[in-house]
Fold this sequence. Notes:
About 55% of the residues lie in helices and about 15% in strands. By secondary structure, the chain is α/β, with parallel strands linked by helices.
Amino acid sequence: MIVRTILIAVVSAYALCLTLRHNMHMFQLNGYKNDEHLHWLQKNIRQQWLLYFGGVLAILRLLIPGGLGSVILDVLILLTLWLEILVYRAIHRLNNKKKLVYTARVKRMLVTIALLSLLLLAVTFICGSYTRLSASFMLLVSLQIVMTFAANIINHPIEKGIQNYYINDAKRMLAQRPDLKVIGVTGSYGKTSVKFYLQTLLQEKYQVLVTPGNFNTPLGVTRTVRDYLKPTHQIFICEMGARRVGEIKEVCDIAHPDLGIITAVGPQHLETFFSMENIQKTKFELADALPAGGMIFLNGDNSYIQEKAVNYPNKMFYYSEHSGEGYCAKDVTVSQLGTDFTLVTPDGESERFQMKLIGAHNVINVVGAIAVAHQLGMSLKELRVPVRRIQPVEHRMQMREQGLVTIIDDAYNSNPVGSKAAVETLAMFDGIRILITPGMVELGEKENDFNYQFGTYAADCCDYILLVGKKHTAPIREGVLSKGFPEEKCLVYDKLEEAVSYAYAIKGQGHKYILLENDLPDNY
């Protein structure tokens, strides 16, 4: 009995570390949000069936403290623990796109989980005996599926207090800089690109601070202010992201933007927004937060923005190849080398611009950045050179030459509008055009419909379509084949690496263009 218990204790300690690491990783990817993590668990219930099975064994073992039944159950528990070790080691090898980051918050949660685990063992030992400890060890491992919830709830007052301290400190720092002009940038898509395009333009004349990477949450903006804001900065470009109603307002309450730009309103994060009305309302929280006289720049090509804009008098539209009262792009020409267009201001002034970005869909974002920079005092002639300097944002239609292969990397967070534009851009290249995609997610009940439509667009633009993962790509394949696309050229792979290897091996004359459209995070 003692030997069995010690053996189970050692093996369960290893299994506990692996299962805890996995569930903490997924919890972090789900934004430390209990409801999002619960939704993820419900969608992926089969992935961790061994923990449920182990939990049942543990309960049975608690009920049978001795005899032959306890021996059989201990053997089953030991075998289950070994299986869990093998399975979670394999999962860890696969989930390597974005590793678990041991932040201060994660460390605090781990301490809380450790204390809860010790408490459970103590209660079991006091209320039962050492004969039931093997059940406790197994139960501890199985409970890792819910331990993150418990630790998050227990730590909530501490986390809230820490967050409020840092946020209030950032607010104080910004309040001491009344001369700093803050530009809020939000949108369902395009906001990161516009942020960096705007930085490239404005830094020709001003000292500019931007939120780095995806620092578009309240804590991300707070960290940017506390770590990077200098007395010499004249403009702060603040990206604002959201997955729920009210989250743009939270960022605005910290940054207090003087003007803003809404790049698009579209079906992104529908699983947490639930409706297009909520998305529309949330993006316009930026416009609601502007001071009297603060101008909001709006993508006039977007119907959802046009619909909501009637409520805002101090607005400035910008368009791509459309006529309207605002900044308009005219005479757009696209080639494999870049894009040219003429920009016309609301006053009728015009200038011809050249940029390295490929695809007509990039024009609208650059026009938006030009509109803001022009209103901030930069002339169109001043902006010609910085527009030519604009570089593709990482993983957003970023081109990489690799011998006879060109990779078009559009792997960041695909959406229905952007994915259509990406394959249409691929279609303009003269060569073997190959699409590799795992499909689009977080589109709620319409996810299958959007992926099906994407398949129909891709069929018209590609020579080969390589899908990654059967779970999300079935609607895409259905859409592809509905257009009469050759079935032998629409293949499904389990891993991205397998699809890329096949793409490189495709034989044929001409240069290969491989479009990487979206890259799902590990929790998908």
